[in-house]
Design a protein that fits this description.
Two copies of one chain form a homodimer. By secondary structure, chain A is mainly α. Chain A folds into two domains: 70 residues, Arc Repressor Mutant, subunit A (Orthogonal Bundle), CATH 1.10.10; 142 residues, Four Helix Bundle (Hemerythrin (Met), subunit A). Chain A is built from ten helices and three strands. The first copy, chain A, binds a DNA duplex (30 and 30 nucleotides) through helix 3.
Chain lengths: 224, 224
DNA sequence: GATTATACTATTGTTGAAAATCATAATAAT
DNA sequence: ATTATTATGATTTTCAACAATAGTATAATC
């Protein structure tokens, strides 16, 4: 995925999509933090765009859960409550289990090989930011054979919604060793076409990620 | 739920929400059919609004799957492919099962009573349009105790996305008798706090609805 | 000190118009 | 007659300047 985009010219697609993607990345990178207002004229000037596509982008981000509109006070980066974090992980488990169920029977050798090569890179990778990207890619490879565009979209959105915190607390992310084992385990399960096994490992995988994030958010709110 | 709204004055909330809700209902009622373009200046004049909130509303509807944007050709009412219908029902089953799981332990006597009274009205109801509303209300009552705002939102969106066809083919909807039995069965399962039973009935319930819609869409596309 | 008045800031929404793109009709070429 | 090319018109997409409104902070008044 293309990280940062400086100007519109390199971007194919509408202006509002360009803005949405730019803001999405800015939120991920922590440029805009939770509860921070997104000032329209400032952003419009910064990106050299007008209000119409900008507001369209903000509505789009609202629908993705990254932004909340306060009436007459504009858009602010949303802050997930602990309950919402749990909610999102529950939904992810339900939907990603479905993706696994539908994808396992369809997966091909080529995709398994690609997944394995991604895992091998992950094992060596030190930089947590690209580690996060590779992590996403791994799961994408395994879900795509479900051939369910809408499902993949929704999973991606939910993943983004909790994943944006990753960048902030990624430095002290320690549990990556266990995470690695789980990745290999899921890949094994795919090779064996064992849906139950893949789903079961996915469950512990997501469960750990959830607990990590919950603990982090706990500290975070105490400090603040 | 408030059916049609003639003008903005009666509406609390932003203009774009008003437009979105108006268009949503118009799509449900079949005023705008699948693949039909949504002309901006026409709608803007019709509703006495300007472009900014109108486009915001269209982006919102896009995020709900009711509308698709064709580059430089504007928004058209989306047409679900058979594969997408199956996809949505799969997602609904996964998410509504989750809602059941989380709601059953929390449901109270008062809500069970309300659900039962809704079912009794449904049993007598002849008008299919209000039948559809009551049907939605019944499921809402049973899901709400999950206390998962985001989940309920997503379920609602998915329901809308297939439910809009209901209005068109509701007249010849025959399988309502079986549907009634399933409703009472789900309610029973809730009373017994039997999650598995509730989920199992839900599965056949959604499965039948899916087959109905698939068959209808089959005929529909042949005629066209 | 609490309350009201006032100025300021930002959103929200309107209006009008320019630029870009697509579909279609009209025209020219093979 | 069929294909290519070129206008034409319609519509989206975006911009820009402005009005109205609500929220916030500051100053004035009781």
């Amino acid at each position: 995925m293309n990280s940062s985009i400086s100007n519109m010219s390199k971007f194919t697609g509408s202006t509002s999509e360009f803005i949405a993607q730019t803001l999405r990345i800015a939120i991920f990178k922590g440029k805009y933090k939770a509860n921070q207002p997104l000032r329209q004229d400032r952003i419009a000037k910064e990106l050299n765009v007008s209000k119409i596509p900008l507001r369209e982008a903000l509505v789009q981000l609202k629908s993705e859960g990254l932004v909340v509109f306060l009436p007459n006070r504009g858009a602010v980066v949303s802050m997930l409550s602990p309950a919402e974090v749990r909610e999102i992980f529950s939904m992810r488990l339900a939907l990603e289990s479905l993706a696994v169920e539908k994808a396992v029977p369809n997966i091909r050798e080529a995709e398994l090989i690609r997944a394995r090569s991604v895992l091998k890179i992950i094992d060596r990778e030190k930089d947590k930011s690209t580690w996060s990207d590779l992590n996403r890619e791994f799961h994408e490879i395994l879900y795509k054979p479900s051939n369910m565009r809408l499902l993949l979209n929704t999973i991606q959105t939910l993943h983004n919604n909790v994943g944006r915190y990753l960048v902030i607390y990624l430095d002290r992310l320690s549990g990556t060793e266990a995470s690695r084992e789980e990745h290999w385990g899921i890949l094994d399960a795919y090779k064996e076409k064992n849906i139950d096994k893949a789903q079961s490992i996915l469950k512990t995988h997501l469960g750990k990620a959830e607990e990590h994030l919950m603990r982090f958010l706990g500290e975070f709110s105490e400090v603040d």
